[in-house]
Amino acid sequence: MVFKKLLGALGVGGPGVDTVLTTPVVQPGGTLQGTVELTGGTVEADIRGITLTLVARVEVEHEEGESTGLYPFARFSVTQPLKLAPGENRSVPFAAQVPWETPVTTIAGQRLHGMQLGVRTEVDIAGALDKGDSDPLEVEPLPAQRRILDSLLQLGFRFRSADLEAGHIRGTAQTLPFYQEIEYSSAPQYAHACNSLEVSFVTTAHRVEVVLEADKRGGLFGGGGDVIRTHAIDHGQADQDLTALVDGWIRSAL
């Protein structure tokens, strides 16, 4: 599958730029591949560099409430300085590893409502930077992440929404300035003790930290509120049925 987005000419007589993603769907830690297609304008262009930037729509909480904005979280240099002759066509290939903590946007082809990632092309022509528009990027979960999400469905949880929150999950190996929350409605067998469950992944090349935040119901003597527990699995556990393990995590938290 090839996704193509015309970014447009950069200035009067300037070159045209197309970004073609040959991997519009990737996994965390995977390789983003494609080409930047350059078409010379009416004058020679002194291109000082082309950079790809991964951006995500993130929610930020502040005193006045909540707002959203685009956060850059990874940058890749595509080419060294070059000169593009008038009318010249040049294809610049690229391959870059996306961060292991890149959030998930789609599961088995189904998009997670609330998620928005993109690839922004930045072209520096004689000191005039054109950031263009963002091409949509879809991210499927790694096998180990998919096992956790499938286990929640097996236990009766139902997907509600997903978003990205600015900040850091304490006690984890998180390196990005935001984290993902995937929210589920409580499964019937936990409904007496839990209103909802949020899942966050902090992933490295070796393991996946699974952060569970349960909205615990209060009893006659209180005891309600958010309960947060962090667990870890290796990528090698993706070939196992983790439903019983996840069930134990949730019951322990509640």
How would you describe the overall organization of this protein?
By secondary structure, this protein is mainly β. The protein is about 10% helix and about 55% strand. The protein has helices at about 145-155, 245-254; strands at about 5-10, 15-20, 25, 30-40, 45-60, 65-80, 80-85, 90-95, 105, 110, 115-125, 130, 135, 140, 160-165, 180-185, 195-205, 205-215, 225-235. The strands form 5 sheets. Strands 5, 6, 7, 11, 12 and 13 form a 6-stranded antiparallel β-sheet that branches. A 5-stranded antiparallel β-sheet has the order 15-16-17-18-19, with helices on one face. A 4-stranded antiparallel β-sheet has the order 1-2-4-8, with no helix packed on it. α1 (about 145-155) crosses α2 (about 245-254). The longest helix is centred in the middle third of the chain and has 12 residues, at about 145-155.
* Backbone CA Rg: 22 Å
Count all strands and give the number: 19
Low-confidence region ranges: 1-10
* Helix share, percent: under 10%
What order do the helices and strands follow?
EEEEEEEEEEEEEEHEEEEEH
Summed up, the helix count is: 2
C-alpha geometry: elongated
The fraction of residues assigned to DSSP E strands is: over 45%
Q: End-to-end distance, in Å?
A: 44 Å
User: Major beta sheet, specifics?
Assistant: 6 strands, antiparallel
Would you tell me the overall average pLDDT?
88
> Structural class from helices and strands?
mainly beta
Task: List the SSEs and their pairings.
Layout (H helix, E strand, L loop, with lengths): L2 E7 L6 E6 L3 E2 L4 E9 L5 E18 L2 E15 L2 E3 L4 E9 L8 E2 L2 E2 L5 E9 L2 E3 L3 E3 L1 E2 L3 H12 L3 E9 L11 E8 L8 E10 L3 E10 L8 E10 L8 H11 L1
Parallel strand pairs: 3-14
Antiparallel strand pairs: 1-2, 2-4, 4-8, 5-6, 5-7, 5-11, 9-10, 11-12, 11-13, 15-16, 16-17, 17-18, 18-19
